Structures are given as C-alpha cells and as structure tokens.
Amino acid sequence: MNSKITIKVIDQSYLKQISTLGQQLNPQLTLEQTEAYFLEMFEFRNYTCFGLFLEEKLVGISSAWTTVRLYSGKQLEVDNVIIDNAQQSKGLGKKFFEFIENWARERNYKTIELNTYVQNAKSHKFYFNLGYNILGFHFLKKLK
Fold first, then answer.
1. What is the CATH code for 5-129?
2. Long-range Cβ contact pairs of 113-119 (< 8 A, separation 24 or more)
3. By CB atoms within 10 Å of each CB, which of 50, 53, 95, 140 scores lowest?
4. Cα–Cα distance between 2 and 136 in angstroms, integer?
5. Residue 111 has what pLDDT?
6. Which DSSP state fits 90?
7. What separation in angstroms does the CA of 16 have from each of 53, 71, 87?
8. DSSP assignment letter at 89
9. What does DSSP say about strands 111-114 and 5-10: parallel, antiparallel, or unpaired?
10. CA 7, CA 143: separation in Å to the nearest integer?
11. pLDDT in 10s for each residue of the chain, 144 residues
C-alpha cells in the first residue's frame, strides 16, 4: 500500500465521519443515534478516539477508555474498532494497533483490553495474530 497513512487522536469535529464508520459496525442504529452516542462518549474525561486516515480520508476509528482494574492496572480498553469495509485486509488494522499500543506504552498503561462480537470470527483471528488472548466472558444485560 503506497497511500499516505496518518493515525492520530481525533475530536468531535470529525463526528459525521466517525458516525458513518460506526454504522458499519452497528447497522441497526440510525446515523442520528450513532452521532448521539459518540457525542455522549466525547463528554467523558476518560474517553479517547483514534482516527486512521488514508490520503486525508478517515477510514478507521477506535474508541478507547482509560480504566484501572485490580487484575491489570492502568488499562486502555478499546472498542468500536472499525476499518472501512472497503479498506479491510490491506494491513491498516495492524498499523492502527501498532500506533494505539505505542500510544498506550508512552503513557504508562499496563494493558490493553478489548471486546469483539462473538460472531465476528475474522476479528478474532486478527486479534490473536496481534498477541491478544481471551481472558473471560463479557456479559451484557439491557436495562428497561
């Protein structure tokens, strides 16, 4: 890939592009719902959003949350990891995670944790290849 790749922390000025990518991961949400969720995330002090640009176009995002856990210490929990469907399997995800991991190391994080959907076998292979291991089960209960 000879295209110019830029990866950086981004803010809500990219909301429309972030939300459009967010819908690729969660197509059941409307664009308005996706935008509202991302706006709410940006309000949290422990939230960071990473952007991956290809020739100035945002083609990848990852949300990240700073937490401290007894089992892992200061931790970066990444979620909403999305590479535009048209740009997948070109090595961008690996470059994206190299950046995120280096960013975390430079800020003295001890671990990185993530969740991925059970049915997303392609992502499981990707994370295993990057050295991530399954630690446990992630449970969810929707509140009424």
1. 3.40.630.30
2. 113/69, 113/72, 113/75, 113/76, 113/77, 113/78, 114/77, 114/78, 114/79, 114/81, 115/79, 116/81
3. 140
4. 39
5. 97
6. S
7. 15, 36, 19
8. T
9. unpaired
10. 36
11. 568 999 999 999 999 999 999 999 999 999 999 999 999 999 999 999 999 999 999 999 999 999 999 999 999 999 999 999 999 999 999 999 999 999 999 999 999 999 988 888 989 999 999 999 999 888 889 998
CB atoms within 10 A of CB 98: 12
* Contact yes or no for 74/108 (Cβ under 8 A): yes
Site of tokens 């630690």: 135
- Which one-letter DSSP state was computed for residue 3? S
pTM above 0.85, yes or no: yes
3-state SS of 4-61 is CEEEEEECHHHHHHHHHHHHHHCCCCCHHHHHHHHHHHHCCCCEEEEEEEECCEEEEE
Query: In which residue are the tokens 């200061």 written?
Result: 74
Please give the full DSSP string across 104-138, using - where no structure is assigned. Answer: HHHTT--EEEE---TT-HHHHHHHHHTT-------
CA distance 64 to 74: 13
Q: Which residue has the tokens 């740009």?
A: 87
